TrEMBL record:
Gene Ontology CC, one term: membrane
Protein name listed in UniProt: Metallophosphoesterase
Positions with biased composition (Pro residues): 517-531
CDD domains xrefs: MPP_superfamily
Membrane-spanning segments: 38-57, 168-189
Length: 546
């Protein structure tokens, strides 16, 4: 996460150029006015100091198991702000000075987190380690900021006045202001501010989730144990994905990764990226509920999507707002991005497949609206069905229909060979009465950030679907299950459609094309044995030593 705001560099440069031009015009105006010269020198000094801080006044430093960026910013109120994107921020009234300390939490360092897991005794020294990291980072930031302020003020004064003596005066003035600000901050330092933080964004609910800062301070032993368990669970999940069996793809198949209900769990992106690489995925289909509350503060969570390694097709869930949908759409507008939003039955062509869907008609986090339940889902499902009929009449039939709620997706029965859904956090596959296979995915986020709270977290689930490149018919699918955060194994089970099992006769798809029978496993390796009544086989990969 960047500590310099979101304004484009070109716009900031343009504003700075105009500001310098105005200051220069003011200082070179005719007439001897000492007060104008003094005010101008102060203005140039402050502007140069601010510019220096903006360009180089930050440091990247590790704090315990996370990487952070520390920055000093001009401020009328001072204090400290800790940004944890996309969850929000917390503000501390740590000091009163014209400088604010911004700390941006960038990412969890998996190697350092794993070291804590493998050596639990280090948790006891974590408080001291974090204090040392913060002191070291603050010292480095102070030195860098001093150089940045002096350099910026001197350089701008030299550019405006063209006199080295005046530039040195500006440098001296900026140094005096910085020393005065530091002294004020030290004099007003409030170490108890950590007990009364101000939360914003999704972190506003943090006191209810983890307890208040005051309770953490008074019961630190309990909090320490919870922190150890949290780090252990998250790190073991990351390790489990690396133990999944390798897969040799068959070039005659299109491989679809079906994910759903990530619910703001950042570990899901690591899992998806790992599966894309290991299974050589052609397209990812997300059947919704990527968010928890659908607020604009959550939108930064979506940033990894264009870099997952495969085209990403997304449909809105009941926890995804219109704001969320616009944010996903903007990702698709980036150069080279392959992100597609499904809604209102408009089809997209990706990886040789024609896919259509309809966003969930209900946004349940909005408490001002009474949910309409399944009737609203079925009504939109009928509209999606009408769009699918229109596509079939135009001789451009859709291969896969996607809806978040299974009730919506069921309305496409008989119009597509395959329908995908989520919502229930319970993986299930069923054949609908008119021949459409409905695959409902479990939660790829393990039910979201809540997955790291309980002693028995939900399982993390995703599926890899293998479709024939010529007919776009489903040949087989692998159900991938991680045994919840912190549990010990990753499991992959192979499933075959009933008409693909040995001895089965060809059946007719909803689109009217015959499905092949007795085709080989799409894995490019022997079919699972024994197949059994359900046509499944299971491979488990224990995360030993974790």
């Amino acid at each position: 996460m960047a500590s310099v705001g979101s304004t484009p560099l070109r716009a900031r440069t343009s504003r700075l150029r105009r500001a310098v031009a105005r200051v220069t015009a003011l200082l070179t105006a005719p007439g001897p006015h000492p007060w104008r010269r003094a005010a101008g020198l102060v203005a140039v000094t402050l502007l140069g100091a601010w510019l220096g801080l903006l360009v180089v006044g930050n440091v990247r430093t590790p704090v315990g198991p996370v990487d952070t960026t520390m920055t000093l910013r001009p401020s009328l109120t001072g204090g400290t702000k800790v940004n944890v994107s996309p969850l929000g921020a917390l503000e501390l009234s740590s000091h009163a000075a014209p400088l604010r300390l911004d700390v941006d939490v960038d990412q969890l360092d998996q190697q350092r987190a794993a070291a804590l897991v493998n050596h639990p005794e280090r948790i006891e020294g974590l408080e001291e380690e974090i204090s040392g990291d913060v002191r070291s980072g603050a010292l480095d930031l102070g030195l860098r900021s001093t150089v940045a302020v002096l350099t910026g003020s001197c350089a701008l004064a030299l550019a405006v006045y063209r006199r080295p003596r005046t530039a040195l005066a500006a440098g001296g003035l900026s140094l005096a202001l910085l020393v005065a600000s530091g002294a004020t901050a030290a004099a007003t330092w409030n170490p108890k501010s950590v007990l009364e933080p101000k939360f914003s964004g999704l972190l506003a609910s943090a006191p209810q989730v983890v307890g208040t800062a005051r309770s953490i301070a008074t019961e630190f032993d309990v909090y320490q144990k919870e922190l150890a368990r949290l780090v252990t669970n998250v790190t073991k999940l990351y390790d489990a994905t690396s133990t999944l069996p390798a897969y040799q793809p068959d070039p005659s198949t299109t491989r679809v990764l079906h994910v759903s209900d990530i619910h703001l769990n950042p570990a899901a992106w690591h899992i998806i990226r790992s599966l894309v690489e290991q299974y050589d995925i052609d397209v990812i289909i997300d059947s919704g509920d990527t968010m928890d509350h659908g607020t604009a503060a959550e939108n930064g969570f979506l940033d990894p999507i264009p870099d997952l390694g495969a085209p990403y097709v997304w449909v809105r869930g009941n926890h995804d707002s219109a704001t969320t949908q616009r944010a996903v759409g903007k990702l698709g507008g980036r150069d080279g991005a392959r992100v597609h939003v499904l809604d209102e039955g408009k089809p997209v062509d990706v990886a040789g497949l024609r896919i259509a869907g309809w966003g969930d008609p209900q946004f349940t986090p909005d408490r001002s609206v009474v949910p309409e339940g399944d009737p609203a889902e079925r009504a939109k499902g009928r509209k999606l069905a009408a769009a699918l009929r229109a596509q079939r009449a135009a001789r451009t039939p859709v291969d896969i229909a996607v809806g978040h709620n299974p009730q919506l997706a069921k309305e496409t029965d008989g119009l597509v060979p395959l329908a995908l859904a989520g919502h229930t956090h319970n993986r299930r596959t069923e054949m609908l009465p008119h021949g459409t296979r409905l695959m409902t995915q479990g939660s790829t986020g393990g039910s979201g950030l809540r997955a790291v709270e309980g002693a028995e977290p939900d399982k993390v689930q995703a599926s890899v679907l293998y479709l024939d490149r010529d007919t776009d018919r489903l040949q087989a699918w692998d159900e991938i299950t991680l045994g919840g955060l912190g549990l010990s194994k990753a499991e992959v089970s192979r499933h075959l459609p009933e008409d693909m099992e040995p001895g089965a006769s060809p059946s007719t798809s909803p689109s009217g094309s015959p499905s092949p029978a007795g085709s080989p496993s799409p894995a490019g390796s022997p079919s699972p044995s024994p197949a059994g009544p359900s046509g499944t086989a299971t491979r488990s990969s224990p995360a030993t030593g974790r």
